[in-house]
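seq:
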Amino acid sequence: MKKILVFILLLPVLLSAQLPNNILWKGYGVEDKNGKQVNEKIQQFIYSDNGIIFLLSFGESLNMENGEVILQTKVDTLKIETKDNTFFVNSKDKTLPLEINDSKNIIKIIVGEYKLPFKKLEQTKKLSKKEFSNLFIGNTYYKFDENDDELTDRLLFTPSSSGKMNYSKEYSSSNWSSDYLIIDFFGHLLFKGVSSPPLLVLNFKKDNIEFLELDYRNDPKSISWNIYIDNKHTLKSKSVNNDFELKKYNSFSKCVHDLNNKTLNTEVLVYADNELNYPINHVQHSYDNKWTLFNDSKTRSFKKYLVKDIIKKDSSTCNVFNLPRGYYADRTSQSNYWDNYLHEERIKTDSSLITKKAFKHDNSYRVFNELKNENLTYFEEYTLDNKILKERGMFKDGKEYGTWEYFDNDGNLIKTEIKN
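struct:
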């Protein structure tokens, strides 16, 4: 069972000196006397009010009985004093100098030859822990990042009322859990999980939570958790080979997640009739975040549209713009579900970039092995359904080069060509 250690040290009241009232400050580790970072991993916060500093520290320890990580918090209450126009704070039986810059947005507590720096958080909001917990607990979320280049399944997390966060992958049966805390620090809600940065809750509604990620390595960063609804999904998976898997599932029957303004105003390339009289039935979302859409019109040409204009013309396309990078989607008619497939996977090694692409429409599976600093790319193409080799060769400076081999439907070599 999770144990939360909370220590409150009430120290002697001395002469009061004012910092800005009702302010939350983020710690930035430990500095030496020259201002150089010597320990960034200490995660601390300060709340200042009426000449008092409340110092919140996060820590972790190991339960030796079951090997689980225990989250810990510690709160020290410090009184500010002044002497000879110098600020101090009282800590136990010591008086520690306190540096405050002219703008009163940076505090440094001096401990011997070291300093604990804190910066004022400009973006904060006081919220109800009870209201947040009632909405938060029991739902499943994923971290939304429109700049995320990952092609792997999204990580899903479901908080329970017991203080455990249950984790799983979107298309995997594996799952695990660990502790989490929700701390009400004078009306500021801080979420903390094991081995993860604290998150300051900025806003929450039924389908989305906005946080400020307070990583010790970086300045505060706005992130969003979107609610994940899985009830309409039926996952079907067909193995292509042991390191690449075709993934197919029924898409949402409605547009579950509201598309953000950036997505709605994204320009996409459409190969279709000019008036879009035929429904879009094939969509590709490339690894480099480019969209290409197709329909079955007999007179087609390439034209650029905004996503919002596509949706206005055909609202049934809304779901498909939640398609992850590296996937493509097909449907047989406007009223049918989208069938989504893993289209592209990239693997980086020390010597090359390996790109694997699956194409359902022509039953092909292609592997590009691009060697670094050599302008050479080795190429192989297989059948997608049973992975029979169809052809292989290489490209140099983007052109076919060297020996190319071609194979029949049974994988037997039938032709060799030399290309320069």
